[in-house]
Amino acid sequence: MTATVQILDLFDQVCFSAFRARQLAYSRLTHANFGGIVRYGPLKGFKLDDNPSWAPEGLATKLFGLYEQEILKLVTELRGRHRILINLGAGDGYYGVGLVSAGFFEQSVCFELSENGQKATLRTAEKNGVVEKIKTRGAAEADFSKVFGELGIKAADCMIICDIEGAEFSIFSAECLAKLQGAHIIIELHGYLSPNGNALEERLVLDSKQFFQTSIVKTSARDLSSIPELEMVNDADRWLICSEGRPKLMSWLILSPK
After folding, report:
1. Helix, strand, or coil here: 41?
2. Which of 78, 103, 140, 232 is an S-S bond match for 111, by CB 3.0 to 4.6 Å?
3. Mean pLDDT of 39-46
4. pLDDT tens digit string along 183-193?
5. Which sequence spans correspond to the domains of the chain?
6. What DSSP string describes 140-159?
7. Cβ of 219: how many Cβ atoms within 10 Å?
8. pLDDT digits (tens, 9 = 90+) for 104-121
């Protein structure tokens, strides 16, 4: 029985590596074919960095405008409500630079733990001609809202997008959330990374309800019928291009002003 389990584990590892390699190849090919420019979706025209510090195999899904469509849909619906984007866990600047470049926000503040990510964000800002509109910071802490005072703005001026791999539970305390009233906040939930993840998520939702209207959004369907470049691609590869490499169905906590 043990030998069978080991063989199955090895098979899973080999398949996963093969899938990632195939996805990386498509991402590189798509980046070359598109000149690194997003061709579909709200970020159409946004130029991506050709040397991402995070998930290079996911370039294709971004270039086709498929990445986190749930979040882009919400941001599009709220366009014009806020002037400033605060991006916690900015990665390579996909949102922090992309949404400014596309005209959704006047400027952004990008918090990113990785120095490589900070450098990639600045490269992307330069590539898109918006360097003066992008501010980069290190890791976000529970007092990140002090940036409001530094910039002379209010929470109501801002949308906050957070993707910090579980650190959201230590940052968004009731005290922190009270200071953010008036903002729209999108928090990617990573409770699955912790043994007591369900309790952490429940506490975050409970604390949030004191100050915000709350809802949960989950990863939804992708419609590829309107993308001509994918019409002649086989089913396996076409859906592989959609993959965001998630370990599970993702959820986002959406906080709206009361």
Report:
1. coil
2. 140
3. 98
4. 999 999 999 99
5. 2-257
6. --TTGGGHHHHHT--GGGEE
7. 15
8. 999 999 999 999 999 999
What are the pLDDT digits (tens) for 67-90? Answer: 999 999 999 999 999 999 999 999
pLDDT tens sequence across 191-238: 999 999 999 999 999 999 999 999 999 999 999 999 999 999 999 999
Distances (CA, A) of 56 to 27, 138, 167, 245: 7, 22, 23, 11
Encoded tokens for 20:
């990632």
Residue pair 41/66 in contact (Cβ under 8 Å)? The answer is: yes
Pull the structure tokens for residue 32: 């070359």
- What whole-number distance in Å separates Cα of residue 121 and Cα of residue 136? 8
* Residues 6+ away with beta carbon under 8 Å from 23: 57, 58, 60, 240, 241, 243, 245
Cα separation, 167 vs 189, in Å, equals 10
CATH node for 2-257: 3.40.50.150
The three-point CA angle 147-150-154 to 5° equals 65
Residue 127 CA to residue 132 CA, distance in Å, equals: 12
Contacts 24+ apart (CB under 8 A), 226-232: 227/40, 227/64, 229/33, 229/39, 229/64, 230/64
Closest CA to 63 of 53, 77, 51, 48: 48
Instruction: Select from 65, 63, 39 the least CA-distant residue to 49.
Output: 63
| Cβ count near 188 (within 10 Å) | 20
